[in-house]
Design brief:
Nuclear Transport Factor 2, Chain: A; 6 strands; alpha+beta
Amino acid sequence: MTADTKEIVRRWIAFANAGFPGTLDDFIAADYVGHLGGGTMDRAELERTERAFMDAFPDAQHSIDDLVAEGDRVVLRATTRGTHRGEFVGVAATNRSVEFTAIVIYRIRDGKIAESWGELDFPRLMRQIRGARS
């Protein structure tokens, strides 16, 4: 089971690295719930958020630094690298390179991501696009 759940997350990251071509149907459950930054999001909000990020960082690539699974949970530690080429949370494109880390716990159900809990180094990302030391 853990090999299968890890493969689902590997495929999801590959889909993200390809720029989210097509729909999220093969990866995200219809009743998905995401937890990020103290808030929650549904599948539609996840898709909007991911596509907005790709608009701002079209060359973004996520490396899998660690992937650990137990039961229906998969923990991902990743590093994201990209170039700020579009508006992001009110900051116009700067063409600055960015690198930040994230830890996400995924709950897998019926071969899809049903729930996730994410912690991103958002302050580091924002310092980089604003030109401050990271």
